[in-house]
Amino acid sequence: MIVMKFGGTSVAGNTQIDNVLDIAKTRLDAAPVLVSSAMAKVTDGLIRISELASAGKKEEADKETDDLIARHIDVAKAFLSGDNLVAAIQQINKLCGEFESLVRGMSLLKECSDRSYDKILSFGELLSTTLIYFRALERGFDAEFLDSRDFIKTDDNFTCAAVDFAETNAKIKEIVKPKTNKLLIAQGFIGSTDEGVTATLGRGGSDYTAAIIGAALDAKVVEIWTDVSGIMTTDPRIIAEARTIDKMTYQEAAELAFFGAKVVHPSTMQPVIEKQIPITVLNSLAPESAYTEICSEVPEKGLKAITKKKGIILVNITSSRMLNAYGFLSKIFSVFEKYKTSVDLIATSEVSVSMTIDSEENLDEIKSELSNIGVVKIEKDKSIISMVGQELWKDPNFISDVFKAAGKTEINMISMGSSETNLGIVVNEANSQQTIIDLHKLFFN
Ligand code: ASP
Ligand code: MG
């Protein structure tokens, strides 16, 4: 079997959904499970609606809700007819009825718990897959609609629930039965707790769903269909010459995803690594164009991609007490642990530690507690530019090339793990664009 996951822009409207089904048709012999995101911008819209409703802005929330429902009904009308249209509208109305009463409740109570938020967000994927399913029937596919909440089992950490893999794998094997010439259709992103309460896996989580299903069923491949031609050497919106990376390792892909390349969700690699199931990243708008394969071993070493993560805060602690003292780092990290803030990059000298974080939440508290340990300096509006590849240190010219290209700007920090997959430099956000242009030119042109 294979898993094919389609992102929001791939299912943005009736023509795009037909395009998705054209692609699925070419893979029916591989017993596909199709996993879909919500239609483009729908999840953002649902978030806005829950914010408006819980802020008591009922009229605005109602207006956005009506628009969102109309958008789905319009797609149904555009490509369905007869019994399929009737059944689809019925199903859409049922989902939207639940959705509307939830929004009404939020407006009344002027609150939105994480639990209600997840329930609201789940309608995006439930609606998109309803449309895909009925269109598949209309076009004569042998199709089956699956509710992912029946088999993606999670804890109750709503908005970013953790998957219970033992439960989930067993349920997937029991419920998801791929078959040649049959199209199974399931939602990405959503699951449910022990008690059957709807939970989501965090923004962008549909890729993760696809990988979970693929790993549970020993898929031949997990295909991530998006609107760009695979993973690129850098963001093509910054640099037109960016090109598709042919092959990369799970580790490289995870680093890239975490450090800013938005193509694949960072958790996606985790379920498939053990079984060595390849992930391919393809363009649904140009199915024949270049794509990227992610697997465990890739012969090409050296630099593969340059990526950027902005909104970075640099935290610097200097203390002469650090000299020859043990337990110093653990004191620092216990502060971050206390405020559930994760540190991305770190560099230390004998008397100072530099770290990056990507959230301002609790920053004042963190600063004040760290001040008990040393002199704290906080700098905002930074970017991490990450250079990801394999065996980066092996090339003696690598680091000097980096400085040749990036040296025109002030570098605040450098961090390179011993795995040699990622060299991160921290620069001012304002200079980051030019730095990437210079680096890309030197390494890839
Ligand atoms: N629809 C969800 C989101 O926009 C999940 C996904 O698209 O992967 O975050
Ligand atoms: Mg996505």
Describe the protein's topology.
Elements: E1 2-6, H1 14-25, E2 32-36, H2 42-54, H3 58-79, H4 82-109, H5 114-138, E3 143-145, E4 153-154, H6 165-175, E5 183-187, E6 190-193, E7 198-200, H7 206-216, E8 221-226, E9 247-249, H8 250-258, H9 269-273, E10 279-283, E11 292-295, E12 302-318, H10 328-338, E13 346-348, E14 352-357, H11 363-370, E15 375-390, H12 398-406, E16 411-416, E17 422-428, H13 429-444
Parallel strand pairs: 1-2, 1-8, 2-5, 3-5, 4-6, 8-10, 9-11
Antiparallel strand pairs: 6-7, 10-11, 12-14, 12-15, 13-14, 15-17, 16-17
Helix pairs in contact: 2-3, 2-4, 2-5, 3-4, 3-5, 4-5, 6-7, 12-13
The chain binds aspartic acid and magnesium ion.
Report on the structure:
The protein has 445 residues and is of the alpha/beta class. The protein contains 13 helices and 17 strands. The chain has helices at 14-25, 42-54, 58-79, 82-109, 114-138, 165-175, 206-216, 250-258, 269-273, 328-338, 363-370, 398-406, 429-444, and strands at 2-6, 32-36, 143-145, 153-154, 183-187, 190-193, 198-200, 221-226, 247-249, 279-283, 292-295, 302-318, 346-348, 352-357, 375-390, 411-416, 422-428. An eight-stranded mixed β-sheet has the order 3-5-2-1-8-10-11-9, with helices on both faces. Strand 1 (2-6), helix 1 and strand 2 (32-36) form a beta-alpha-beta unit. Helix 2 runs antiparallel to helix 5, helix 3 (58-79) packs parallel to helix 5 (114-138) and helix 6 (165-175) crosses helix 7. It is globular, with a radius of gyration of 24 Å. The two termini are 39 Å apart. Bound molecules: aspartic acid (ASP) and magnesium ion. Aspartic acid binds at residues 7-8, 37-38, 43, 124, 188-189, 203-206. Aspartic acid is lined by residues 7-8, 37-38, 43, 124, 188-189, 203-206.
